[in-house]
Amino acid sequence: MIVPISNSIFGIRIFYRGVMRIIVADTKEEVALIAATLMSEQILRKMNSVIGLATGKTMEPVYEHFKKLVDSQKLDLNQLHFFMLDEYIGLDLKHSSSFQSYIKQRVLKPLNLSEAQFSFPPANLPEDSAGDAYEKEIEQFHGVDFQLLGVGRNGHIGFNEPGSERKSLTRVVRLTEDTREANQSDFSDRSVPDLALSMGIETIFRAKELVLIATGVSKADAIHHLMNSNESSECPVTFLKSHERFTLVLDREAASRLS
Ligand code: GLP
User: Fold this and answer.
1) Where residue 8 falls among pLDDT bands split at 50, 70, 90?
2) Averaged pLDDT, 212-222
3) Separation between Cα atoms, residue 259 and residue 254, nearest integer Å
4) Which amino acids are annotated catalytic?
């Protein structure tokens, strides 16, 4: 049973289920503005926050709104550090479709941040040491304070595909055909790599706060599972619902299968 705590504040509905907060807005633009606002609030609370960033089409308007908020509120970002969720393996990191390029183009450069403020999954290291190296780097920063997340239409988070274990840490993963097909539009010159280095579910779960955003009808099934299925590696996003600070921000389409 979802209990609404506040109906229709500017068309946005906020519900709690246990400790999970669910915000439903009308449009993906509103979802993006809400996510950008939550990230800004985190920075106002802690100027040296460690922020986990995600990629994907869902996040593009989030970073646009975040830049506008940073400019209008004159937020100081100089003490922040950022960790990326995942990266393809077998792709030149300078390739325009690498997640590193995505973040440089949409976050690092527009916000005039320094490269030293970013940690990217070391997808060019040998496969047996890359995951441990990234986990150690996260530990050196005393963990992630605020993690932004999207979700794949099959319920993957980061690149934790169905079958991923709750205890998984950063590791090399094989992408499903469904995910490769979903991401093919990002690649004009080649097929989507079939391997990636991804934070694990346990890595993500260790962040002090999680904000997952989902927009569009293609995410409605994954959100339905998150809300209605037991925690299961068949749909990795379901693991997040036991996190003690978890906010889900949805547009009407992504929420369309919820009662
Ligand atoms: C990608 C990323 C995820 C992202 C998801 C959804 O492949 N690895 O971090 O959340 O798939 O992407 P989109 O927002 O484009 O639907």
Assistant:
1) very low
2) 98
3) 12
4) 86, 154, 156, 161
* Closest to 171 (Cα-Cα) out of 210, 135, 120, 208: 135
Q: Which two tokens stand for residue 195?
A: 């391997």
Counts for the chain of helices (H) and strands (E), in that order:
7, 12
What letter does residue 251 receive in the DSSP assignment?
E
User: In the structure, which protein residues have their CB atom closer than 6 angstroms to any atom of ligand 1?
Assistant: 54-58, 85-86, 150-152, 158-159, 179, 183
Provide CB contacts within 8 A for 67, sequence distance 6+.
110, 111
Residue 3: exposure state from Cβ atoms within 10 A (0-12, 13-18, ≥19): exposed
Which amino acid is residue 94, in one-letter code?
K
pLDDT band per the 50, 70, 90 thresholds, residue 11: confident
Q: How far is the CA of 55 from the centre of ligand 1 (A)?
A: 6
120 CA → ligand 1 middle, Å: 16
Whether residue 170 contacts residue 197, with contact meaning beta carbons closer than 8 Å, is answered with yes
Residue-level pLDDT at 10: 64
Half-sphere exposure in the Cβ direction for 117 (13 Å, CA) = 21
pLDDT of 259 reads 82
Torsion of CA 237, 53, 38, 162, to 10 degrees: 0
C-alpha closest to that of 62 among 115, 1, 106, 8: 106
Distance 151 CA to ligand 1 centre (A): 6
**Mean pLDDT value across residues 46-72:** 98
With beta carbons less than 8 A apart as the criterion, state whether 49 and 77 touch. Answer: no
Q: Topology of 11-215+222-251 in CATH?
A: Rossmann fold (3.40.50)
Q: Residue 54 in 3-state DSSP?
A: coil
Other C-beta atoms closer than 10 Å to the C-beta of 177 total: 9
